[in-house]
Amino acid sequence: MQDGVMQAWLESSHLAGGNMAYVEELFEVYLDDPTAVSDAWRQFFDQLPRDNGVVDTKHSVVREQFREAAKNKLKQAGSSSAAAPDLKQVKVLQLINAYRFRGHQHANLDPLELWKQPQVPDLTLQYHDLSKDDYDTEFNVGSLAVGKETMKLGEIHNLLEQIYCGPIGAEYMHIVSTEEKRWIQQRLEGVLGQPQFSKEKQLKVLKELVAADGLEKYLGSKFPGAKRFSLEGGDSLIPMLKELITRAGEQGSKEVVIGMAHRGRLNVLVNVLGKKPADLFDEFAGKHANLKGSGDVKYHMGFSSDFATPGGDVHLALAFNPSHLEIVNPVVMGSVRARMDRLGDSTGSKVLPITIHGDSAIAGQGIVQETFNMSQTRAFQVGGSIRIVVNNQVGFTTSKREDTRSTQYCTDIAKMVQAPIFHVNADDPEAVVFVTQLALDFRNTFKRDVMIDLVCYRRHGHNEADEPSATQPLMYSKVKKHPVARELYAERLANKGVVSSEQAKDFVSAYRDMLDKGEIVVEEFREMKSHSSDWSPYIDQEWDVEYDAKISKERLQELGKKAATVPAEHKLHSRVAKVYEERLKMAAGEKPADWGFAETLAYATLVDDGVHIRLTGQDSGRGTFFHRHAVLHNQKDASTYMPLNNISDNQGPIEIYDSVLSEAAVVAFEYGYATAEPKSLVMWEAQFGDFANGAQVVIDQFLSSGEQKWGRLCGLTLLLPHGYEGQGPEHSSARLERFLQLSADHNWSVCVPTTPAQVFHMIRRQQLRPVRRPLIVMTPKSLLRHPLAVSELDEMTTGVFQNAIGEIDNLNAKKVKRVVFCSGKVYYDLLQARREREQEDVAIVRIEQLYPFPAEEVAEILKDYQHVKDFVWCQEEPQNQGAWYNSQHNFWAAIPKGANLTYAGRAASAAPAVGYLSEHNKQQKQLVDDALTIK
């Protein structure tokens, strides 16, 4: 409102003394929802005094302002005001607002009509001092988007029931943004709760329900008792997904990534993605292709295809996933982010993530909160996602709400990011399609998550061999009598004259005929084009494949100088400035390189070659141990500068983000990213190595076995700080033993580098070698600044990563009586102790890559020690941890025949390390003595 118009409005009778009660009531409505009052009142209330940015809800200051305004009016008018406006008008606005806030609690959502929500007093006329006696009275409808300014109360009330208490229950008033709330109101209220669809659209939806029901019945009869985690009861998921994909394509999306658990997965594979029914039937029959690896059950498998839309073909990818519910969701987000980056899409307009949840799982699994928390952050945002809950109101055998969650709805978790939540009755497919359109349009408009709660039921048990009536007798007595959604919708369309019962039966027969033929049943299916990066160079590659690692000293020095140069106006912290001064000396060859500089050099060489690098972790910009300093913070204005992003004009991008405080979701996200983009170097760094515990599901179910189960290659690198410096049980061990226990089939490499040159070569090898398997690195802590853990530039310009390193002191091999194998920091403890003792009869061999074990390299090193009979494995970890139990078979195989192998290290322990520094030092001295003392 223009200032002049506002002034004229203020000078009207609105604020006269007799209107005070009216104004205060109106103010209450405004506090609940600013969109509920007229623009004039909203602007007036917006100008009221605020307490810390919030209107003073104690009303003391507000009332005083109202009184002052009223006094001024009286003085100007010289008499009392005109009659006060009808207070019932405000009550009507409050009623409208109540339906917007709480109408969903009276919505008709449950197809079985078992879900009885408590009566809400706010939704009664009496609560607002109204009654049916007022039905014929005309009232202003405020911001109710029904196309009229005034209506009779009876009409208003009926429309509110129709819009907010029908088959759609909309929760959106928790959203702070007035713009977003108004957008939803316009869309919901504009159709008066009754979306209209063309006959063509209705028939399409009916055919999709026929397909959803038809596949399940076909599988049930052809493979009775087989587990298929049927969609029956939630059939509307199929038209929902097809509408999402079609509309996304219309609006410019090029790719859609879907993540879902078991329920309905086979149906989605066949009826949405276009998997051949014949292929699915073969899997039921136990047939499979002669592929490498273990394979997986059919309801874990992914699929890719193209789907025709009016806006062009859309590439679909259904993510592979294990039985750990919800863990696939951040994997999907990571895959989407990789595709966005590849397409130059910073907003998510070209790639759409869809995640499908179970009602018990979404409320019960903490990974959901982690993924929501990531959704708007720089490192992990994907422009919003569509989250669908297949809400069959029972989790395996648990159906009591008070046993599955502590909230009213399973979707309440979405409120933490102010996502709108649309509950919809799955037996009303037109309401489902409307909500689907609404959700996608909101996501694409505001780039935020949206939740659709598809309230349905489960026709069978958790799986088809389960007996659900044993634990849900009332529910399943209803389920047995309840018609399927296809039948209900066919009858509805028949009553409207859209389709005859004969036509509806013909649709069923035609779909069954297609299944009998075993061919693709999705009309929109198209042969897949090349939408992803080319993985062909990385398929069937062995670890020892050759690659070009050469780099000149001149280029290395030039890159080192660029990586250590900071603009003069960017004022560094004094300690950081010292680090960069030292790095310039290292680049010039005046000082040997430390760990941080060598790592930085590796990144600089790769980005200079055009490689994209992505590194995330809770403190990865600086580095937990103050060693990396890749992101530099200006001490004057807190701006940041990344030297690695200023290497050359045509360099590859490098992204280094301090991540949200999460391990599981972040590692899953990075796994998803790495599985979608082979050309990028993707890395995650733990704050401390044992924090990887929080991501154990991702490590077990995806990282270690994804290639074996699903043929999914992934080059993700985990940097896990590991080393015993007396910091106690929690921050000493990255649990090396767990990674070694999972090592098989050349599934990944596990490395423990001990020099800056080694970390330089290791990082470059991970990217340059045409192999895309995970790299697990036990990175150091104290070695980051250890005086012996340094390397000359020449060590980086020549050679490659050494999987094993032999003795570096000039010992006479013939005099050696014992050879000590070790990995990691303990090497320097052994080296220093041996030098102090001036001992020349013990050689030390470092195993820098524990898996795959470098048998050939170790054999070459041991050529000079074939006479030695005394071999020792020395480690800092307790005997039942570290490498001893999982790698000693490799050590035994490496030593000469007849030689003996013994252990030097801490005794077995339930805890990774002791908590007392004095005890730690005592143990450390003892294990070094045990390794070096020949008895």
TrEMBL record:
One of its GO terms (cellular component) is oxoglutarate dehydrogenase complex. GO terms for molecular function: oxoglutarate dehydrogenase (succinyl-transferring) activity; thiamine pyrophosphate binding. Its EC number is 1.2.4.2. GO terms for biological process: tricarboxylic acid cycle. Its cofactor is thiamine diphosphate. Residues 593-786 form the Transketolase-like pyrimidine-binding domain. The keyword Oxidoreductase applies. It is an enzyme of class 1 (oxidoreductase). Gene3D superfamilies: 3.40.50.12470, 3.40.50.970, Multifunctional 2-oxoglutarate metabolism enzyme, C-terminal domain (3.40.50.11610), TPP helical domain (1.10.287.1150). Pfam families: 2-oxogl_dehyd_N (PF16078), E1_dh (PF00676), OxoGdeHyase_C (PF16870), Transket_pyr (PF02779). Keywords: Oxidoreductase, Thiamine pyrophosphate. InterPro entries: 2-oxogl_dehyd_N, 2oxoglutarate_DH_E1, DH_E1, KGD_C_sf, ODO-1/KGD_C, THDP-binding, Transketolase-like_Pyr-bd. E1 component of the 2-oxoglutarate dehydrogenase (OGDH) complex which catalyzes the decarboxylation of 2-oxoglutarate, the first step in the conversion of 2-oxoglutarate to succinyl-CoA and CO(2). Belongs to the alpha-ketoglutarate dehydrogenase family. This is 2-oxoglutarate dehydrogenase E1 component.
